[in-house]
Design brief:
mainly alpha; 9 helices; elongated
């Protein structure tokens, strides 16, 4: 019989896939298309490289789907440790952020329609450019809101990792710190957004907790300990 798949490695591979998708829409495409403080140049770049902008929409949708599969794989890995915490990981770490990713795609679709002038012939070019920036800023605000969920789901995941006995407890502690860093980034981005870039730079060591967790699962894998059978008294 073929050997059963290592459940930890399955979760790790889904995590790796998500890690590869995320930077495309979060880092690469904004760096190529968006010009800070210049709505006209930004709109022109989107119009010229519409395929690249649409790629960001595709990766957001794909990331939402992969995220759901990831949390389901983590549920299978940790349900024997604490089922309630594992369910919380699925809801806060999978379902709720996935909905935000779909909303982000709607914002991007609005920006694209403004660039193309669809249904907006009554507006002149500067007005349409301003609408493009409005939709892009909405996308950024939704990402800031998502940081709260990116942080909160790591708290039950950290507790599960710490309690599991089949993963290093250090990973659990690091995941907790990682989650706390995301919550702080959400607070900074919401209350004092002018310091968001500085806060992100200082939080980098904490944010590598997820990377360490993902690499451990991919390389080493993890198998829940089998429950010991209970002998009955004669």
């Amino acid at each position: 019989m073929p050997r059963a798949l290592n459940p930890g490695r399955v979760a790790g591979l889904w995590y790796l896939f998500l890690t590869l998708l995320g930077p495309i829409s979060l880092v690469y495409i904004p760096s190529k298309l968006f010009v800070h403080g210049n709505p006209s140049a930004t709109a022109n770049n989107i119009a010229t490289h519409e395929g690249l902008f649409r790629l960001g929409m595709v990766t957001d949708l794909a990331g939402a789907v992969v995220l759901v599969f990831l949390v389901l794989a983590l549920y299978q890995l940790f349900k024997g440790v604490d089922n309630n915490l594992a369910v919380l990981v699925v809801i806060v770490g999978g379902i709720m952020p996935a909905v935000l990713y779909f909303v982000n795609v709607v914002s991007d679709a609005g920006a694209l329609m403004a660039v193309r002038g669809d249904f907006l012939s009554v507006f002149d070019k500067p007005q349409r450019d301003a609408l493009v920036m409005l939709f892009l800023h909405l996308h950024d605000e939704q990402n800031t809101a998502a940081e709260l969920l990116w942080g909160l789901w790591l708290f039950p995941l950290a507790a599960l990792t710490y309690k599991s006995r089949f993963l290093p407890r250090l990973l659990g502690v690091w995941l907790f710190i990682n989650g706390l860093a995301y919550v702080v980034l959400w607070l900074v981005g919401t209350l004092v957004p002018q310091y968001q870039d500085a806060a992100f730079a200082y939080s980098q060591p904490a944010l590598f907790g997820e990377v360490a967790f993902m690499l451990w699962l991919v390389i080493r894998g993890a198998r829940p300990q089998a429950a010991q059978p209970i002998s009955s008294a004669s």
